[in-house]
């Protein structure tokens, strides 16, 4: 998109920040990572406008030229500027770096209370490594914070140190990952955590995503979560069984690589069904449309 003649009217209306990560761990990469964590970015490209005084998003430009220009036209910020805004960011940057480099769990627990998203992310990283139970203990409330990297860390802590009290918040993320810039991955993290701390009430939130498709990593995560929940809470077995039986993937004839991937997923679903029901149903030598239909009916 840049440079582009159609975008020239927008060039002077903002200070432009280009964030690029090469994941090398270099100083430049870490500086870019800090920006990504603060702004909740875990997928690229992302285009949005921020209020420079608050760093709050005021418009999502999306990826088309008409919407890009419309976002600029509709964006409004206060003209008054205060050096306090820059001071707040500098303070937060320094605190986040101290927490990251020190690995101090006590400082990290305090950092969870900080209003700056970067400080919270660095604090959560330290706690996930040093004291995941301390992080998961706060997860039910903190999952409402609209920052994907932070919520990923909270979900990981719940997978390590389960808290059944967080199940409702996780189910909410599965149903509607509000404020997410990467909703599919946030759902994956939430499903993984539900596998550790969900119960029969969680099946309703998990079930629709069991058939997301073999190309989508969310499917396998949900299959594993449904199995784990049903193995832990027998009241979840009927719902998990029905969801899994309905999620056998459509065969992919004519594409050998795809057919292997589909069959592997079908076998994983099949094994999960056997594990939670205690029944033995033979898996066919060839997984095709007829086999899929037979398998789905066999568990009912």
Description:
The protein is mainly α. Strands 1-2 form a two-stranded antiparallel ribbon. A hairpin with a 6-residue loop joins strand 1 and strand 2. Helix 4 runs parallel beside helix 6. The termini are far apart. 34% of the residues are buried. The mean pLDDT is 94.
Query: How many DSSP H or I helices?
Result: 15
Structural class by secondary-structure content: mainly alpha
Describe the main β-sheet briefly.
2 strands, antiparallel
Strand order, sheet with most strands: 1-2
On the 0-100 scale, what is the average pLDDT? 94
- Using the alpha-carbon principal axes, give the shape: globular
Taken as a percent bin, the fraction of beta residues is under 5%
Order of helices and strands: HHEEHHHHHHHHHHHHH
Q: What is the quaternary state of this protein? A: single chain
Number of DSSP strand runs: 2
Level of helix content?
A: 55-70%
Distance between the termini: 53 Å
Low-confidence stretches: none
Radius of gyration: 23 Å
């Amino acid at each position: 998109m840049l440079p582009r003649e159609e975008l020239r009217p927008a060039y002077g209306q903002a200070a432009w920040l280009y964030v690029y990560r090469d994941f090398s761990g270099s100083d430049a990469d870490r500086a870019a990572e800090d920006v990504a964590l603060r702004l909740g970015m875990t997928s690229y490209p992302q285009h949005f406008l921020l209020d420079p005084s608050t760093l709050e998003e005021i418009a999502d430009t999306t990826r088309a030229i008409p919407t890009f220009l419309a976002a600029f036209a509709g964006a409004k910020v206060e003209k008054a500027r205060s050096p306090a805004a820059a001071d707040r960011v500098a303070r937060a940057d320094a605190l986040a770096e101290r927490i990251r480099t020190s690995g101090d769990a006590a400082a990290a627990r305090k950092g969870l209370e900080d209003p700056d998203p970067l400080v919270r992310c660095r604090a959560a990283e330290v706690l996930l490594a040093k004291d995941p139970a301390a992080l998961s203990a706060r997860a039910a409330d903190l999952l409402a914070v609209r920052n994907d990297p932070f919520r990923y860390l909270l979900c990981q802590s719940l997978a390590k140190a389960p808290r059944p009290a967080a199940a409702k918040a996780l189910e909410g993320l599965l149903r509607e990952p509000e404020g997410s810039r990467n909703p599919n991955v946030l759902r994956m993290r939430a499903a993984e955590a539900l596998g550790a701390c969900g119960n029969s009430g969680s099946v309703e939130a998990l079930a629709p995503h069991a058939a997301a498709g073999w190309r989508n990593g969310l499917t396998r995560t949900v299959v594993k979560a449904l199995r784990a929940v049903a193995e832990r809470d027998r009241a979840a077995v009927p719902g998990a069984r029905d969801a899994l039986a309905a999620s056998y993937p459509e065969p992919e004839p004519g594409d050998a690589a795809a057919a292997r991937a589909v069959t592997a997923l079908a076998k994983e679903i099949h094994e999960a069904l056997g594990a939670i029901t205690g029944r033995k149903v033979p898996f066919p030598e060839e997984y095709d449309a007829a086999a899929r239909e037979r398998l789905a009916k066999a568990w009912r």
